Structure formats: structure tokens, C-alpha cells
Amino acid sequence: MRIAAVCLSHFVCGVELRRRPDLRGLPLLIGDSDPPKRVLDCSAEAERLGVFAGLPFRQALSRCPSAVQVPPDVPTYQDRWEGVLDSLWRISPEVEDGGIGLSYVNVTGLSPHYGSRESAIAEAIRRLLGSQGATVGIAEGKFAARVAACDPTAGIRIVDPGDEARFVARAPVELLPLAPALVDRLKLLALDEIADVAALPLPALVAQFGKAGPRLWELANGIDTEALRPRQPVPVLEEWLAFDGPVSTVEVLVVAGRQLVSRLNSPLAGRGVRSVSTRAELASGRIWDRRLVLREAVSETDRIAFIVKTMLTETPPPAPALRVGLRFAGLTGESGRQLSLLERRSRDSLGDAIRQLKARFGHSPIYRCLEVEPWSVIPEDRHLLIESDE
Prior knowledge:
The chain is an alpha+beta fold. The protein has helices spanning 11-19, 44-47, 57-63, 74-88, 118-129, 142-149, 164-168, 180-188, 194-198, 202-209, 212-220, 250-268, 301-314, 347-361, 379-382; strands at residues 2-7, 28-31, 39-42, 68-70, 95-97, 102-106, 135-140, 156-158, 236-247, 273-282, 287-298, 321-329, 367-371, 383-387.
């Protein structure tokens, strides 16, 4: 499968610089909100001093002590990135979100539509994204395409089929799709380039990295059979209400939330809502966002209004708001299910609860034990824990 990786380097910094042009030319550091704190993105000036995304924030400050620290505005970054992904649908209906700043597009069979040249597809993608400075790499598999796209000097790079192993050999191990801890471990073992990893036998990698070893060995040798996971369109209803001045009173925010629910009642058209997000644009220009995933789809206006009131009362915005917004997602025709008085929790309701948790966390936190080799003399081989969807 021919995959085009689209890389927008320093996408997050670009959003901040468009908001604050006075920061141009300065070394910027934007951290994430998860402990331990790491660099979410940095400017080109900070990158030249050895800072990169994923680096622990303390190390970044030691390498670039004069950097300007900018607090993250993740809802704004995500909204802008969703717009980029929507634009890429004009190229292909199969677009995978690789995280803010990186996406994958299935371009198999599209060459005849662009003059039989894959480079023409890449040129069309760059024209589509305009001045955002996209770099595009096309190869067999996502990893080789990503390595090709992460070269900021190339702009467009095409990897011929069968040439993936040679091409990725000189790339740094930081490009491997691994957790930061595993990348740090590779560096500690003096494995700086992917060629160093490819030179190791498979048993040695399995001994060092366990289940990640085979996958690591395949990627280092240019083998990538991972399927593209196309992004599915999610219907969303959203409405905003602006104030004449900054507002911090919870009662005013609750009244505004009730009015937003009333505005969205007509386009909702009786459908149920599984996810409710209250949002606010703060006086600083940043977006505050709180999302609640509901156990069951809710369509009654009064219940939705009560949910919004509870969210704004228990977790109000941390600063005065210039406007507030309300977003409904997970729209469905199901508006709820009436339970009988004596009904016990059934397998169906348990499955609904697991699917609800999966929608909230992105993966199922529930595992089930599967018997695989009951005759084995090794206790760990007798059973296997697998993610449960039911």
C-alpha cells in the first residue's frame, strides 16, 4: 500500500505565533500537561539548540535556558488540526490521524489522476495546505513514509518500492514509533541510528525489549505491514455565545449554557447525545474545555441542560470568559433505555459500560483472561490477558 505521510513541523508553535506575532524569532517551548512534563512542541530556534518534541521539560530548559515558555492550549491545537485532516479528505477518503502535526493518506491507485507521477500527488497536498509548510513522503508502509516526510529540507520525497530498508537505515531512532522510555533505552545502548538496530539479531531485541522486539526489528529492516486506520467522520453540533465583556460569575455562565442548549435543540432534532463539552474562550485568548462522556445517550433538553449546569458549577473556567460554547458529539438515534424495577445488570448493560469506557479513554481498560496453553509447565503461558470489548 502506497502511503503519503504529511508532516507539519512545529504546527503547535505555528498556531501560537499566529496568535502572538511578537514571539517570532524567539526560542519557544510549549509543554504538555501530563506528568512527567515533556515538550509538546518547540520553535526552530529552540530545536537548533537540541530541543525536540518529547524531551523532558527540565532537560529542554537546561539546553535552552533563555527559552520563552508558553502554556499549552490543547483544544485550540486540536481544532486547527481537525481542519487540516478535513482538508486532506479532498485528496483521499482514507486519512489517518497520526497526532497533531502528522497524518497518513492512502494514495494507492491515485497516480493516474495526477499525471502518473506520485510526486504530483505530493505537490497537490502541499498546495492544498498552503503556507503551512507541509513536507510529504510517499513510500510502502507508514514508517518509511514518515521518515521521508520528517526531512524538512526535502519538501517532497518518494521512496521506491523495495528500497525502504536502505532508506530508513540512516534515520535517527527518535523517529521510531515507540514510547519515549524505549527510545531513551535505545540511546543508552548506543543505538543512535536505525541501521544500528537493524544490525542486531531478532533474539537480542526480544531479550532487551520483550514484545516490542519483533516490531522494532521489522521497522528497522524496512518492513511495515501495519494497516492504515482511517479517521471516521464524527457528527458534531457546536454553538457559541459571546459576552459584552469578560464574565467570571458562575450564575451568568449557567444561564448562557441553558441558552446554548436551547439553540442546539432544533438541529439536534430529537437525537441522543453521548458526549457533552463545555468550552470557554478566556480573556487570554486561550480555550478552556471540559468534556463529559455519558453512560447513555440523552435527548431530553431538560436533562442536557442539567448536565451542562452541573459541569459549569463544579468545574467553572479558571479565568474570566469572553464567550462560552457547547459541543455535542456522539449523536445517535437512541435516546435512552427504560429499565424495569427488578432488572439486574445483564451482559448487555455490562457491554454498554465497557464501550462507554472505551469511548472515554480511547481503549478498553477491561481485560479478560483467555486460556491458551493449560498444559504448560510455565504458569505465565497458561493464560493470556486480552482487551475486552464485551
